[in-house]
Structures are given as structure tokens and as C-alpha cells.
Design goal:
The complex is a heterodimer of chains A (437) and B (283).
Chain A: H1 5-33, H2 44-56, H3 65-94, H4 101-104, H5 106-134, H6 149-176, H7 187-192, H8 201-225, H9 233-242, H10 256-266, H11 280-283, H12 297-305, H13 311-315, H14 317-320, H15 327-347, H16 359-362, H17 366-370, H18 377-381, H19 388-402, H20 408-420
Helix pairs in contact in A: 1-8, 1-12, 1-15, 2-9, 3-5, 5-6, 6-8, 9-12, 12-15, 15-19
Chain B: H1 2-5, H2 10-15, H3 18-21, E1 30-31, H4 32-37, E2 44-47, H5 49-54, H6 56-71, E3 76-78, H7 88-93, H8 96-112, E4 117-120, H9 123-132, E5 141-144, H10 145-154, E6 169-172, H11 186-193, E7 198-200, H12 230-239, E8 245-248, H13 251-263, E9 271-274, H14 275-280
Parallel strand pairs in B: 1-3, 2-3, 2-4, 4-5, 6-7, 6-8, 8-9
The chains are: A mainly alpha (437), B alpha/beta (283).
């Protein structure tokens, strides 16, 4: 054990990484909470169960067996190899090397063997995913909303993961050539040892150090890449599934302020002059959503938890038949707009200044929201229980109730419902005619 | 009555005279007001819905279900002219005000008659009544007709006799508001299988079933620009199964799929029928 310059550099890197990561996570949290409150804390036991099954257990990933299986490999690699990162961090802080090797003995050898095999599996899975995205050209990875940054982002993540795993395996491979290896021998390291066999003993130590630093600094850098990437889903998938909708998919929320007003309208004893002049805070609230802050914070959490896999869009009947609507784009738009609002707040000392833009129209067009059949295929398809439909419906509510700008044919339908009690122009008096026909 | 029955497409007659005869009701269908005037309460309210009341095609589904209920000896009432739209299309279109107006007026009437149990042949009415009315003061036991028929078959209150569909290849289209929206996948399939038919699934079925294109108020507007209509996509999938009959459980899906079959010029070979029609012609 020795404390020197390298420990100082390590601690500095560690704390810088944690500091900036925490700072950016806080910003995302703030952006999410800009939206309306969402009362999703009922039935905690059920929520824990869903989170365990869907997020931890990846139950919805395997609906698509190929992608699901390889995803589980990477996910397991992430969870389990991080146990080794604990050792690496402690080594970095304490100036030790393979701290757990002595106390754990044979168990340590077994664990590292397992991690190394997993690392190889992760590399294979990442290569398969790169292949799927870049060579196979699977349709859902080629949609317009994925062009540019989102497409590159996905590739960067996979490449970084491959690099991290190669660095991890290089540590062992270099050590395997040493006269007195600090631990092992490990199966994969031994197989990879010839890569470094040309090096002198000093050269091996340098190679090992380079790999070790590349691995840990890579992890810290990757940690700070997360808040700017779709890869943030590795964190938010968990709360996202916890806060998922528990009622049947067909039950759309009842608008509470509308309920109060309609109750008042239909109450024969209500005296409009004695009705409370609506609580000022509530009456400023819009019907439906025009921008991100009009949505609920669960909607925005959904957006940040989205990893842009596009299973929703692949299942969407409107998208499959060439309409502009893509549920994935809805989620990406909500996140991008939330980020934009966040930047405006940062630039104006913590206050949002109207930028003349909004989620509706500047991000999501009316053509998109009117193409939805509310079939819930997107909701069903999402591996982390994101609900794009709830957002689409709130945007429709704004267009219809605040602006009265529904498509003409729908206005006609609604007039009929209001006047005839049916969406078509039939007289209510004829409703039971079928009995006599 | 016979005049109307002559509207029946020839292809239906191919299957059975029973399908036509089955629509002749043995008793008069009574409204809740009539039941109340007699001082009686029926076991169940049959919520007919707008399509079931006004659309000529859907009226035959309505009659089939009424006939099934009579044959099973279930007493039922309808609201008749007191029934209104549940508000579903208004809600999906974004008009929460109109939806709640409709809902609360309906709830006043339903509660006025002390309704406990409702059956409907429309998954949209089913979903709205079952899921969205309770919070507005309307708490009822709501079943879709597929669930009720399934129950009646299992309890032997209904017995399949005519074998007109026996061995026929039938595919079933899941309505979104019955399937994904409420998790009802098995009851309609059990009902179809009771007919001793060859039930074949489409490529996308149950939780992965493809919408017919009518939901979310799309029924009442032109679709947005695209390269295909959704009902054509779905109909192609149904036709690919090689089935003679596409079984539907929703009057709107029925319209969309029927249009799709016509578009593909297959109306002579393939028929879209509601599960109530299939069962009623086989009792």
C-alpha cells in the first residue's frame, strides 16, 4: 500500500466525476418537476413488484427474444461487473492492487473468471447490436426521428462499452504474462495473454496500468455522458416502472377541474352567483397541455427514461401505415423540449422566460396527434412502461378545449353527440327503432 | 320485418337460414321505463350504444345479442330513447367537457333505475362505462357481451346446436378497447371455439393485435396522410389466414374490416361477423 501522486489524481478524478454527474442529475430532476404534480404513490407494494419484474427482471425485454436476450447480457454485465469496479475504486483510493484477491482466495478467482466471461459476452452483445443498427438496418432504427445525434448516441454507447470491456480484459491479459501475477490465473486472461507476450516485465506493468486507468477513467467519463444520452435509461427505468399506470390501459384520467364545473352545471340546486370564484391557482391551469410544464411529471420522467428503442413506433398502426405519428418521437420531443426549457432557466438565473415556443407545434405537430387511434399498442410495447398515449391525449385536450381547433369532422361529431346523444345525425327518439324493425 | 331481412347479403344465406331466423325475437324487448311501469326489474341492462342503435349493420349485432339473452332466459331492459352516447368519442377526441356532460347525464339515468349490471356489445361503451364512470358516480358491474356469452355457455344456459360453422376457418380480430385496454383476450376466443370451428390467429393478435383504425375518434374523421389505410393493413393480415369468416367483437371494427374486405374484393368469399351473430345462428 502506498499513497502517492496517482492516488491524488484518482481521488480528484473520482470526485470531479461524481460532482458533475450529481449536478446534471439535479438538473434533470428539476426539469421533470417543472411539470404538474402526479398522484402516483398509491399501492406501493404493487409498484415495488412491478419495478422488480419489469425493470430489474427485464420481463418485457424478452418479448423480442433476440434483442431481449442480448440486452440482458449487457444489463447483467453492467450490474455484476460493477462489483469489480468497487474493488477498482478502493484500489484507486488506497493505492492497493486487487485488494480482494488475498482475503477472498478461491472465491475471488471464481468471481473474476465469471466477470471476464461476462465481459466477453458483453462485447459480443454490443457487436450484435452495432450490427443490427448499422448493417441489418432494422426499420425502427432508421426512422426520421433517429437521424443524426440519436443514431450516433446509440453507436457511441455501444462502442464505449466495448472499449471498457477490452480495457478490463487487458488488465488480466497483461498480468497473465507477469512472473508473479497478483491473482489468477483466469481463463479468459490466459487466452488473451499472447496479445501482451512481446512485452518486457516493465512493459507489462505499464500496459496493466494503462488498461487499469483507461477502464476506471472510461467508466467515470461514461457516467458523465449518461445525463446527455438516452443511456440515462439505465437509471430512470427503475423509478419509471415504479410510477407506471396501474389502472387498465383503457381508463384515461378524469379531469378533476372539468368534473367540478360539470357537476355545478348539472346541479339543479346550484346557484351560479354563490359558486366560488374558482381558486385563482387552479383557474390559471390550462385544460390539456400545450407545453412540457402542462404535462404531469410522470410524463416527463417517461421522456427521460426513454431509450429510443422504437418498439412503440414499430407497433403503432398509424406509423406502420405511413402517418407522421411516431410515439417514440413524442417522447423524444418531450425530453428535448424539457431540456430546452431547462437551458432557458439556467440562462436566466433560475427563471423561465417565454421563448415563444411550445411542445405543441414547435416539436409535436397537430398532424401527429390527430393520427393516433388510442389503441395502446405503444404503451403495451414499451419495455419500461412509458405511456406516450397520455401525452397525446393531453395535447388533444388543449387543442379542443382551449383553442376549439379540432378537425372539422370531429367538431361535427361532437355537435351531434351534444345535440342528438350520438356521434351521427340521428334523432334520439329513433334510438330504439331496431326493436320494431 | 322480412323486408329488412332481405337486405342480408347472399353470402350469409349460404351459411344458414338460421342466421336470418335467429334474429326474430321471441319476446318484445322492453325498456327500463316499461319494466319500471310494471314494477319489475330485469337482471341486466343491455347498453345498446350508438352504433348498435343506428348503424344498419350493427343493428343486426344488437338483435343477435337481444335474441341470445332471450334464449338464455335472461331478463334484460334497454334504456331506449333515454340512452345517449357514453361520451367516449368526445373524450378520445380531447373534449373532456362534453364527455363528462354525457357521462353524468347517463349516470343520473342509470342510477335512477338502480342499475347494477350492464352488458354491451361495444368495447368502447364497455371501457367507458366500466373504467371511467365510477369516478363520476356511476359504479356498475359492466361486462362485454363476449364475457356474458362465455359465461352462459359454460353454465349451460346456452347450448350450441346448429353446426353451421363447424370446421370452418375463422380468425378473430381483437378490438383494442377490449383487448389491450381491458385485457379481455380469452372470453371471445372461448365463445368462438365453442362453435367447434378452426380458430386461426392472425400474425399479430392478443396484446400485439393491430388496431382496425377506428379508435381514438378516427371513425369520425378522415385519416391523416400516409401510404395505406390501417383497416386495409389489418384486413390483409386477416385474409392471409385463409379464413372464411373474420370474427369481430366491436361494431366499429366490424365496419372497418367489412370495408377492408370490400376494398380487397373478397366480400363474396369472406364475411365479417360479430361473435353474437355467430352464436345466435348456432343456438
Amino acid at each position: 500500500m502506498s499513497f502517492g501522486l496517482s492516488n491524488v489524481i484518482f481521488l480528484l478524478a473520482l470526485f470531479t466525476a461524481i460532482y458533475f454527474f450529481a449536478k446534471n442529475v439535479k438538473k434533470i430532476r428539476r426539469n421533470i418537476l417543472l411539470a404538474r404534480d402526479s398522484l402516483r404513490t398509491d399501492q406501493p407494494a404493487t409498484r415495488w413488484k412491478i419495478m422488480t419484474r419489469v425493470a430489474l427482471g427485464q420481463s418485457k425485454m424478452v418479448v423480442n427474444p433476440v434483442a431481449g436476450l442480448f440486452h440482458i447480457v449487457i444489463y447483467a454485465g453492467f450490474l455484476l461487473i460493477n462489483i469489480e469496479v468497487l474493488e477498482i475504486v478502493l484500489d484507486g483510493i488506497l493505492g492497493t492492487h486487487r485488494l480482494f484477491a488475498q482475503p477472498l482466495g478461491a472465491l475471488y478467482t471464481a468471481a473474476i473468471n465469471f466477470f471476464e466471461i461476462l465481459a466477453v459476452a458483453v462485447i459480443v452483445a454490443c457487436v450484435v447490436f452495432l450490427w443490427r443498427r448499422n448493417v441489418m438496418k432494422i426499420d425502427r432504427f432508421r426512422k426520421p426521428e433517429l437521424q443524426g445525434w440519436p443514431f450516433r448516441d446509440a453507436n457511441y454507447i455501444l462502442i464505449i462499452e466495448i472499449v471498457l470491456m477490452i480495457a478490463l480484459l487487458s488488465i488480466g491479459a497483461a498480468e497473465a504474462n507477469m512472473e508473479n501475477p497478483p491473482a489468477g490465473p483466469f481463463i479468459i486472461s490466459s487466452l488473451l495473454a499472447p496479445v501482451f507476450s512481446g512485452l518486457s516485465q516493465d512493459g507489462l506493468h505499464i500496459a496493466e496500468r494503462i488498461a487499469w486507468w483507461a477502464h476506471i477513467l472510461g467508466i467515470l467519463a461514461f457516467l458523465n455522458y449518461l445525463p446527455f444520452s438516452k443511456h440515462f435509461h439505465i437509471i430512470l427505468s427503475f423509478p419509471n416502472t415504479w410510477y407506471a399506470k396501474l389502472t387498465p390501459y383503457g381508463k384515461f384520467p378524469i379531469h378533476q377541474r372539468v368534473k367540478k364545473e360539470v357537476e355545478l352545471m348539472l346541479d339543479p340546486h346550484a346557484d351560479p352567483y354563490t359558486a366560488p370564484s374558482d381558486q385563482s391557482q387552479e383557474s390559471s391551469e390550462k385544460f390539456g397541455a400545450k407545453d412540457v410544464m402542462d404535462l404531469t411529471w410522470v410524463n416527463v420522467l417517461n421522456a427521460y427514461a426513454c431509450t429510443e428503442c422504437g418498439r412503440c413506433t414499430a407497433e403503432c398502426p398509424a406509423n406502420q401505415t405511413g402517418k407522421k405519428l411516431s410515439p417514440r418521437k413524442i417522447m423524444m420531443d418531450v425530453r428535448d423540449r424539457a431540456e430546452e426549457i431547462g437551458r432557458i432557466i439556467d440562462a436566466n438565473g433560475g427563471k423561465f422566460v417565454d421563448d415563444g415556443k411550445s411542445l405543441l407545434d414547435h416539436y409535436i405537430t397537430r398532424e401527429e396527434i390527430w393520427a393516433c387511434t388510442s389503441c395502446n399498442a405503444c404503451v403495451e410495447a414499451c419495455p419500461v412502461l412509458i405511456d406516450p398515449l397520455d401525452i397525446i391525449m393531453q395535447l388533444r385536450q388543449y387543442v379542443v378545449m382551449e383553442e376549439a381547433k379540432a378537425p372539422q369532422s370531429l367538431n361535427l361529431m361532437m355537435t351531434n353527440v351534444e345535440n342528438n346523444g350520438a356521434p351521427w345525425q340521428f334523432a334520439q327518439a329513433d334510438r330504439a327503432n331496431w326493436v320494431y324493425q | 320485418m322480412m323486408e329488412n331481412l332481405q337486405d342480408f347479403p347472399a353470402v350469409l344465406v349460404k351459411y344458414t337460414d338460421g342466421l336470418i331466423n335467429s334474429l326474430i325475437m321471441t319476446e318484445k324487448v322492453k325498456t327500463m321505463a316499461e319494466w319500471a311501469a310494471e314494477g319489475n326489474t330485469p337482471e341486466i341492462l343491455f347498453w345498446v350504444g350508438c352504433a348498435g342503435s343506428f348503424d344498419d349493420r350493427a343493428k343486426r349485432i344488437t338483435k343477435s345479442l337481444a335474441s341470445i339473452l332471450q334464449k338464455a332466459g335472461i331478463t334484460f331492459g334497454i334504456l331506449g330513447t333515454e340512452e345517449s352516447c357514453t361520451g367516449d368519442p368526445a373524450k378520445r377526441a380531447g373534449n373532456e367537457f362534453l364527455f363528462q356532460m354525457m357521462a353524468m347525464q347517463n349516470i343520473q339515468i342509470l342510477n335512477g333505475y338502480g342499475i347494477k349490471k350492464i352488458v354491451t356489445a361495444c368495447p368502447h361503451c364497455f371501457n367507458t362505462l366500466k373504467n371511467e364512470y365510477p369516478e363520476l358516480g356511476g359504479d356498475y358491474q359492466v361486462v362485454h357481451h363476449s364475457q356474458l356469452i362465455d359465461e352462459l355457455l359454460k353454465s349451460n344456459q346456452l347450448r350450441i346446436e346448429g353446426g353451421s360453422f363447424k370446421g370452418k376457418k375463422i380468425t378473430y380480430h381483437d378490438p383494442c378497447y377490449l383487448g389491450r385496454a381491458n385485457g379481455v383476450y380469452e372470453a371471445p376466443r372461448a365463445v368462438i371455439e365453442a362453435l367447434d370451428v378452426d380458430l386461426v390467429e392472425m400474425k399479430r393478435s392478443k396484446a400485439k393485435g393491430l388496431c382496425c383504425g377506428a379508435g381514438g375518434a378516427q371513425m369520425f374523421k378522415e385519416p391523416e396522410k400516409g401510404h395505406k389505410d390501417i383497416n386495409i393493413e389489418r384486413t390483409e393480415e386477416a385474409l392471409a389466414t385463409g379464413s372464411e369468416i373474420i370474427a369481430a367483437a366491436c361494431p366499429f371494427c366490424n365496419v372497418m374490416m367489412t370495408d377492408g374486405v370490400k376494398n380487397k374484393e373478397k366480400e363474396q368469399e369472406v364475411k365479417v361477423l360479430d361473435i353474437a351473430e355467430l352464436i345466435n345462428a348456432s343456438l
